[in-house]
Amino acid sequence: MDPAQAEAELAKGFSTIEVIRPDRSEGVYQVWLNRPSRRNALSLDFFSELPRALSLLDCIPSARVIVLSGRGPHFCSGIEVSALVATVPSEPADVATRSESLRRKILVLQDSISAVEKCRKPVIVAVHGACVGGGVDLIAACDIRCCEQGAFFQVKEVDLGLAADLGTLQRLPAIVGFGNAIELALTARRLYAAEAKQMGLISRVFSSPEDLEKGALQIARDLAEKSAVAIMGTKAAMLKSRDLTVQQGLEHIATWNSAMLMSSDLEEAVKASLEKRKPVFFSKL
Amino acid sequence: MDPAQAEAELAKGFSTIEVIRPDRSEGVYQVWLNRPSRRNALSLDFFSELPRALSLLDCIPSARVIVLSGRGPHFCSGIEVSALVATVPSEPADVATRSESLRRKILVLQDSISAVEKCRKPVIVAVHGACVGGGVDLIAACDIRCCEQGAFFQVKEVDLGLAADLGTLQRLPAIVGFGNAIELALTARRLYAAEAKQMGLISRVFSSPEDLEKGALQIARDLAEKSAVAIMGTKAAMLKSRDLTVQQGLEHIATWNSAMLMSSDLEEAVKASLEKRKPVFFSKL
Amino acid sequence: MDPAQAEAELAKGFSTIEVIRPDRSEGVYQVWLNRPSRRNALSLDFFSELPRALSLLDCIPSARVIVLSGRGPHFCSGIEVSALVATVPSEPADVATRSESLRRKILVLQDSISAVEKCRKPVIVAVHGACVGGGVDLIAACDIRCCEQGAFFQVKEVDLGLAADLGTLQRLPAIVGFGNAIELALTARRLYAAEAKQMGLISRVFSSPEDLEKGALQIARDLAEKSAVAIMGTKAAMLKSRDLTVQQGLEHIATWNSAMLMSSDLEEAVKASLEKRKPVFFSKL
Amino acid sequence: MDPAQAEAELAKGFSTIEVIRPDRSEGVYQVWLNRPSRRNALSLDFFSELPRALSLLDCIPSARVIVLSGRGPHFCSGIEVSALVATVPSEPADVATRSESLRRKILVLQDSISAVEKCRKPVIVAVHGACVGGGVDLIAACDIRCCEQGAFFQVKEVDLGLAADLGTLQRLPAIVGFGNAIELALTARRLYAAEAKQMGLISRVFSSPEDLEKGALQIARDLAEKSAVAIMGTKAAMLKSRDLTVQQGLEHIATWNSAMLMSSDLEEAVKASLEKRKPVFFSKL
Amino acid sequence: MDPAQAEAELAKGFSTIEVIRPDRSEGVYQVWLNRPSRRNALSLDFFSELPRALSLLDCIPSARVIVLSGRGPHFCSGIEVSALVATVPSEPADVATRSESLRRKILVLQDSISAVEKCRKPVIVAVHGACVGGGVDLIAACDIRCCEQGAFFQVKEVDLGLAADLGTLQRLPAIVGFGNAIELALTARRLYAAEAKQMGLISRVFSSPEDLEKGALQIARDLAEKSAVAIMGTKAAMLKSRDLTVQQGLEHIATWNSAMLMSSDLEEAVKASLEKRKPVFFSKL
Amino acid sequence: MDPAQAEAELAKGFSTIEVIRPDRSEGVYQVWLNRPSRRNALSLDFFSELPRALSLLDCIPSARVIVLSGRGPHFCSGIEVSALVATVPSEPADVATRSESLRRKILVLQDSISAVEKCRKPVIVAVHGACVGGGVDLIAACDIRCCEQGAFFQVKEVDLGLAADLGTLQRLPAIVGFGNAIELALTARRLYAAEAKQMGLISRVFSSPEDLEKGALQIARDLAEKSAVAIMGTKAAMLKSRDLTVQQGLEHIATWNSAMLMSSDLEEAVKASLEKRKPVFFSKL
């Protein structure tokens, strides 16, 4: 899709999220979870709107970095019970048919969360207040996680009588270590900001929701000034390497860079460095 | 094996461990390393009794959570030298035959430790005093690790002139990070409780052995009140995902949950949540 | 190559590094990055000299542990711009030919860094001052990382308009966690000693460059006194297990130890332990 | 999408393919490559229409089996040169940007071919005349391959100065063996029906295009009478197991069947077998 | 277990199989499927007796090769319907509990078949008449497959309304190619001896059941005269390599052979070759 | 190394092989196993000369295809007994040290064989007479295998009392199927040309050694006229994909082609096709 079309599509708006360009933030787009009255519970609409928004932003070269935030007092209260119930098929059909249908629905929800990783641009998430259940699945797929000091995290699925199935159990171990991840998932206990930072779940803790908002946007602006080819290649290489041996990962980035190093951004960076000035990168993706 | 048979087998007792039901702990069983005079050194008998005990507990639906503790002043002083020596075959045979025999014996010991992961119920380990060599192999296979502040951990195998082969080198990197793991394994230095917590090896540090005992049982009781289907599914999914790519892990839990979400526990959890009461889960495994 | 030949080769010296035997350190060799005027920038010569030096040391049984340090005020300022530019082929040829050539050059540089892992003896790195870009690629391949409190680390490649391709993106996630790694790689921010320790990148922080020098050598001397078979087997098993499932890693070390446990070092360790004396290990590799 | 909607969408037709229900073939749909004047060369439109058609058929329970055939004298002459040229970006942009754009376009074309595997229903392909280049990529993703005795196959990409990138190099080795696959891909030679059968590329060779048409439909009708849950599970399990170890594949199908065996189709099959009658399966997917 | 104990256990006999030492066949044991009146249908008893017999044979060094045959007119008619029905839990419990129970039962049956691979000694299977459903799962796990010209094979599970879950779908693709395997599994058609040989499923086709019996035992006697260390190492290396990359498989066999090459069998083979006589191997496993 | 240097090095000659440019074969080099009096047994010198020769040829752009043949009446009688004996360390040292040394020697021999795969240019092997033991390891690493009708193949290692460790057990299953491979490796039987062709080990059988010689060179000349970028990319992609999932392999070739499709060879191929003339490719690697 061409950028203008994508912009036009974005402009039509969404029912569960809002996508804006924050003031004076060249290259930065912000996606708001926008159902504050439901504490941004993740509804079926959300699961279709989020991947669509990210896919549109991916087509817009001037969208270089995405910030994900939540409206209202809490970032996210998890998957909405009605969405969960809608997922489980009603009685009549035979067990096999219901099971197959259920499996496909779960795969669709998973793909919605994985859209954050599929998006080539980095996604910075800013968490305030509660981030529970499906909210943790969501942030585990983001690239940089920040929060304010009142935030807490809870892998709450066992308390609903189920094993989490939207990515937390798969992504959290690589982020906080296997031991921390399984303890959080089994106990469903609250993890507060300081411990979350110490475990590696969170990169930066800000002292208030306001500072969080400013801080996350500042990180985003900094990334937006960097080379798009470099930023995107870094995100892609790390996600790809996660599923390969070290040697396979090295070979992958060598193949990738065999074209990417012929970028004019590298030339510009070298020139700027010799001329002792800030580089101005051109690559647009 | 049916539950009554398994209970009867358990009742016969063991020589190196003791299995009890702690007072007032519905659903919780405790396995004691029970050779305090040998600082709970792991003997050949232990390596056959532990997997048998866990396999029996796995057949008893009312055993929902297992706590592993050590009698006497130390949790575990590692593999007993006599067991180690018994493993290495004596001279006469040719090198190839001895080597093949040795390899099979190591695989048997490894399987004994891996029985902790194979057990569907979560295993909480409570470490006090020393946890050395084979003791670290053992706790690395547990699901939740607690200790008291006087506890220390030592990957001591290099000091015996060998590379650890019961799981520490394989499981520790995912728990504490690759850099920490290799440093501990090469230097064989003592790791104390506070740093162990900071590295992610330990989830909770208690201030005394008594508090540890109480605390570990309390965590166990909390888990025992949760949905068995949810707890077991969470453990299974995380262990399975450890060996798969993220995408394969997601597909696995989707297939798993395609049946498990048709559980009456989910229904009960949703109902209880609407009725603002504590859920009472029914699933028994 | 036999040890005497390897010693003779080493004695010829190198242009970008210096290899010495520090006083009174039986079994310890030290490799110095030795271009202090260029802040030890990694030149094309370095990329061929490092693997040659390590390969020679690997042939010398009395080299049991290697310490890697940097001369001058900084450990390493990263890949030299001239080396980077030399890598990228000049215009005339068609894009495919240039790309293929570029890819092969990257693979050569990667292999140079991976030589640290290929070396059977443990490599301890001591970082002071700046460790930037290619410097981080280098230390990520080492076995034990120490630094002094003024040291800082920077995954700086995005600021050169490229994705790091010498191993940082592949090795860092297993060391500091995936979340920390991607944040460091995207923001290119400085990571100081204390946070580096907390993340698991660094095992020990010393209070000054002098203490660092002494401390790193002391760790090396301690390792040099341990069983060579045990130390080398531990390094090999952990690197191999990194790319296997836990079960496959267990099977690998069982196969390995099926021969290695027939070592006289194990016998000596057991004897020494019974006789309550320090063991003297014989294995030489 | 619900079945009626999907049927309506299908009814709107396509420009490069035609989807029909062959006479008297309950449960069978046929997709025709429908540009005989271009020898069914694969155009950009085709690459978007094929996955859409398959995805619609996947939503229609009465579409139990799909037959893929080509109109005109040849099955498929490969990717259309104009599509290939459109893929390669024109000069102006810098190499890195062009390369990244090219990579994304290739991924889209690959996904189009992989849609055949993603479709849960089995796809039987019937090849007559030439099947060249992209045509081989396409049939390698199908489940059952038949041809008439005049058919031939050619992995022709090297003759276009490129390595095949739509799946042949990845899927062919598992089908015909690694040695046969690499020989075919390097030499670009023609492989005729008899040798194709002998190599395992083709399951059935018919003596004429007419017999092929009848024969492929007959196989399809036979599959359509079988249990949908069983057929789909078999396709899914084999594709999933292809990327897992044997042990992981076994565990996957055990998890899958833990729900699917509670199907009424199994009950019906057992009953029918006892009553010595043909079963009538109910599952609809 | 020591060899004498194992022999004594074997001597107690089994209800579904018979284990004998065929006349004049030093080192060869034969396991007969022994329910000819049920066409050797695989009952629950069989699934527990087969792994026990193989495990006992594995403890007896004089059992160097195992031949698996079927009594009566057919090799095996597949899993017994009553066993299948016993696997599927009856109604009362909730779906999740039933599903979890079912999954565990399938895993037990799978392990029973996999016991053929776990047995260190080679297993030669001799198929006459029908080999259907579970029979194909069984032979796919054997090492060498022979048949007589009247034999046929049928992956019949889809006709029972289910996807095969005892190993056929996982093991067959590596044996006959992915294309042949999926066609056989989807169509459930009969595969006769000649085509089975051509596909690589069968190594040798004999002209009658009598010749098959003689021929299979002759192959077994030939293997029994070879070096036990070599034969067992070959089986182990190939099964292990199946789940590794080529490079990992090479490293595995290098580690394995680092002990095994110090065998006296190699010495004897070299000596015998120089002395132009038949070697007499000593290794016993 | 630059081409002229490489040519000069090649001109110095080898003791176990001979490298020539056959008459009138633009772009083709031929490597002869050149110890006919020893039936081309593989000596330690061979294991160091082969990888050196291939590495030199890899630096010479005019060497586009390599043909590997054997002088004298047989292609190769396997690893020389003296080389094998030299590998196994003599008595004095302790078992662990000998084992570690042995392991490293095996890895070196393996790397020598793997050099055939590491060479970017395709290697066609022409087998006449016997190809036994190490000879099979060697040809299994080649890209295209031809033979004359009197040739035979024998995985003979078990008859030497050992499991093959130079690649046969790892590479053969993908070429001839797992069942055929394990049968050949366990029985050590002779496999003759016709069956070798039928199994997929051999691509072409010629009627005499003379025809084989001519035929192999003709295939080589045909490949030499094709685009170097395309041929090398095809070999690289297939070898890489062998160790990846299909999806990962697709992603790899997409990344690779993102640069390679900007080749002038593709342009030339398209132009030549429109102008109905033979393309003349320019890429040189």
UniProtKB/TrEMBL annotation, chains A, B, C, D, E, F:
Name the record gives this protein: Delta(3,5)-Delta(2,4)-dienoyl-CoA isomerase
Presence of keyword Lipid biosynthesis: no
Coiled-coil segments: none
Lineage, top ranks: Eukaryota, Viridiplantae, Streptophyta, Embryophyta, Tracheophyta
Pathway where it operates: Lipid metabolism; fatty acid beta-oxidation
UniProt KW keywords: Acetylation, Fatty acid metabolism, Isomerase, Lipid metabolism, Peroxisome
Annotated InterPro entries: ClpP/crotonase-like_dom_sf (IPR029045), Ech1-like (IPR045002), Enoyl-CoA_hydra/iso (IPR001753), Enoyl-CoA_hydra_C (IPR014748)
Places the protein is found: Peroxisome
Family: Belongs to the enoyl-CoA hydratase/isomerase family.
CDD domains per UniProt: crotonase-like
A single GO cellular-component term on record: peroxisome
Keyword Acetylation attached: yes
Alphabetized SUPFAM superfamilies for the sequence: ClpP/crotonase (SSF52096)
Molecular function terms from GO: delta(3,5)-delta(2,4)-dienoyl-CoA isomerase activity
Primary localization: other
UniProt GO BP: fatty acid beta-oxidation
